[in-house]
Design goal:
single chain, mainly alpha, 0% strand
């Protein structure tokens, strides 16, 4: 998500040929999804099968990522919002699960934050480099990472018998 938030505007400008100010406005749809964080947290509280949210959210983000390169300009804000809200749903679910299950919730949340930021920062570099190779490549990478998150979450949930 970090890579996508930081580099979507640049990607839109370079590969969709739109002005930098419009590209920035379109990419801010992911930030708008952050305003719905409370709703997403409430959704986690209401969903009976938490596994669906923990696995479904990154799959939904992957669909948004993979669709962006071929999407018409009018659809891109919706896709950007989709990956933003999906990430919010996923990270809220992970935080909540960790804080409920861990012996030391503060440490669990700190580890999640460090991993999220460290990986996100490094994948920003990969996103930038991939942009120079092929316009669709960074979105394929992000989609693959989101699917990997869903798969690894599924394994952890089943191995630890969380839900």
């Amino acid at each position: 998500m970090y890579a996508a938030n930081n580099l979507t505007a640049t990607w839109l400008h370079l590969f969709k040929g739109i002005s930098e100010d419009l590209a920035g406005a379109l990419s801010s749809a992911a930030m708008i999804s952050g305003f719905f964080g409370g709703f997403v947290g409430r959704l986690y509280d209401r969903v009976k099968r938490k596994t669906y949210l923990l696995i479904g959210a990154p799959i939904l983000a992957a669909l948004g990522y993979i669709t962006i390169p071929s999407a018409p300009l009018e659809v891109i804000p919706i896709l950007v919002f989709l990956y933003g809200i999906s990430f919010n749903a996923y990270i809220t679910s992970v935080y909540t699960t960790a804080s409920k299950r861990a012996e030391n919730p503060a440490s669990a949340l700190a580890i999640i934050n460090v991993l999220n930021m460290a990986l996100g920062l490094h994948f920003s570099y990969a996103f930038s480099w991939l942009m120079t190779q092929w316009a669709k490549a960074p979105w394929l990478m992000l989609s693959a990472l989101a699917l990997l998150s869903a798969f690894s979450t599924y394994i952890v949930i089943n191995r630890l018998k969380i839900y």
